[in-house]
Design brief:
The chain has about 300 residues and is mostly helical. The chain folds into 2 domains: about 10-235, Rhomboid-like (Rhomboid-like fold, Up-down Bundle), CATH 1.20.1540.10; about 265-295, no CATH class. The protein has helices at about 5-10, 15-40, 50, 60-65, 70-75, 80-100, 105-130, 135, 145-160, 175-190, 195-215, 225-235, 265-280, 285-295, and strands at about 165, 170-175. It has a two-stranded antiparallel sheet with strand order 1-2. A hairpin with a 3-residue loop joins strand 1 (about 165) and strand 2. Helix 2 runs antiparallel to helix 6, helix 10 (about 175-190) packs antiparallel against helix 11 and helix 13 crosses helix 14. The chain starts with a helix and ends with a helix. About 30% of the residues are buried.
Length: about 300
Amino acid sequence: MSIVQDIRTAFSRRDNALNQLLLINVLVFVFLVLVKAILWLSGFQGYFGNVLRQFVLPSDLPSLVRHPWTVLSYAFTHEGFFHILFNLLNLYWFGALVREYLGDRRLVSLYILGGLVGGLVFVLAFNLLPTLRPYAVAGTPLLGASAAVTAIVMGAATLLPEYTFSLILVGPVRIKYIAAFTILISVIAINQGNPGGGIAHIGGAILGYFFIKQLQRGRDLGRPVQAVGDWVGRLVTGRPNLRVTHRSRPAEPAAKATGPRKPAQEEIDLILDKISRSGYESLSKEEKQKLFKASQQ
């Protein structure tokens, strides 16, 4: 099977959101690397800046008005190898956790909203704060998936603060401390040469926290993203909207009309006992879903 066919297969699956996000980042990175190499070999390396400008988020408002799509494209754009490597590793580790517990659609929503909010905070800070105005005048851009990935890290930490990762040379660390360290690094970056990145990370972290808190209260902030994604999917595939008609039938019993059954307190107590004995990782997918439903009561 060819590489192109593998890519098509990856995007044709509906339950493959994490791999699709990873793949989009890799494809954009490879495209820019190839373009840069071709321009350098042909002696037109000076034009690479014009190409890159179509992907990165500008801090000055006139450029942003001319390139409005960059409010999202920047979150899939990397130049340095280690920049994309660390972002994709974090996306894979924490994204797998969010996907397992909340599903593919909410993982994508968290990534997209984290990127949008991070970019918005970046633009506002550079244009409203006097200390950062010189960066906006100079046209300092923002690129990288860090804000979107930080939203996923914070979302995972808000959802499962006691979940433990085993880090190389460190050992087991609870995810809430990983998130706190990520925020600390972002704050340090603000006055250590990368104010745009640090501010965008904090914006993404704030979104990740509120996304999960609102979800636990029964409000899904990602529904607009999902609606746009469904519309784009229908546009690309050419599939029409499905219309469902209902035939008259006897009324359902009242117990069925109340929606999915919420777990009883006895079930939750058993799940919590299991966590205290064996840790959160020992729970099955069904037990995790029951625990989440209980948090919405």
